[in-house]
Amino acid sequence: MDRNSRVSNRLSGFIEEISGYRDRNALLDRILAMAREITRADAGTIYLRERLELVFAYTHNDSLFPVDEAHRHAYAAIRLPVSEKSIAGYVASTGRSLNLANVRALPQGAPYSFNDAFDRKTGFVTSSMLTLPFLDRRGHALGVLQLINSLDPQHNPCPFNADMEGDMRMLAREVSGILELSEAEKRGIYGILRMAAVHDPAETGPHAERVGAIAAELYHAWAVKRGHILDVLLQEKGNLRLAAMLHDIGKVGISEAILKKPGALNEEEFGIMRGHTALGASILDDAHGDLSVLAHDIALHHHQRWNGRGYAGSGDEGRLSGEDIPLGARITAIADVFDALVSPRCYKKPWTFDDALAQLRKDSGQHFDPVLVDHLAEISELLEPIYRRFPG
Ligand code: C2E
Ligand code: SIN
Ligand code: SIN
Ligand code: FE
Ligand code: FE
Q1: Neighbours of ion ligand 5 (CB under 5 A)
Q2: What residues pair up with 145 in beta bridges, in sequence order?
Q3: Alpha carbon 338 to its chain's center
Q4: pTM, rounded to two decimals
């Protein structure tokens, strides 16, 4: 078999494999790994388009950090305008790929320039760069794949060759459809959340994103500790991220008089409020598949407490304790309370991160699963980037 059909066989197996991926980060992680393997690139970054900007979405950099820590860098709040001034912006706005042998010797008259801020900050030295667009069916850029420093056998950076460029065009074409689908799914969830947000200003997209992100990273730490296989872990992580985002969807059924009450709720009002758990579960109940089962369990059980003193409905019915509470719900409980504490609410002021972490530690073993609270300490340096990435 010639090189070309070898690569295309490999890519079709790869596409089949990743088309089941639900989590965007997991998807991007696999795409980068495959692209870097084929092109022997030392580093790579994927940007995704959000309206008129490219948002930094995922990066690998063998010279700066191990690949199994890549998810820790996925919350960098870097944005570039879709304009011809930057390399990634040029590729997104023109839909053309760029294969640059040396970013410090750009073609005469090029509208774009190389931004060396990242190199200066990290000590990394970018030399060759291959940048391609992910195009949707109408030819608009969904995002950009940027590969940096192809390495020769002696590990010295060299230009990306024409074969590599062709292979990456094929990869980008194949992957675009999958990215489009995963974006559509995310938009669906955002639509549901926007409906809820009209009614409850606390349940916004960013709040849901943060709870989803904290829950996903907590799960990641938990699953790594237990030696779970990365592929399975990433699937579960993606499902958990989306399911956790919907934890409070039942608040759509609670009156605004209660939701927006500036002071403390009385006993009767809090009884009604507690019903948002069962209500959310009933909204998510009739769907099928892993994601909806998880979303249902999280909506129903996210206010259960480790000591059995929580709730899953308006009254005392259905209380669970300890490991009888589904894992996803135990994880989401921690993420939700952390975010509720550090955010402003109509009934309270925002707390500092340290105060919120201290409160969770204090309630460890009472309200929260103590093992999971310990994992929160491991991911604590991700909290600042998550809040920068999803502000508001
Ligand atoms: P939420 O605002 O998203 O808060 C989620 C959970 O975070 C709360 O669940 C609670 O476990 C924790 N939390 C929030 N604020 C504080 C705090 O100041 N101190 C401590 N220790 N924990 C806090 P909970 O209590 O079951 O409440 C569920 C939902 O009920 C809340 O969601 C909020 O929408 C509503 N709610 C709770 N208490 C009040 C209140 O006093 N006034 C009003 N207007 N709404 C309330
Ligand atoms: C990774 O952990 O390497 C990517 C998976 C993710 O962040 O969802
Ligand atoms: C970046 O490429 O700027 C993000 C990597 C990091 O945050 O270390
Ligand atoms: Fe809730
Ligand atoms: Fe919430």
Answers
A1: 248, 336
A2: 46, 132
A3: 18
A4: 0.83
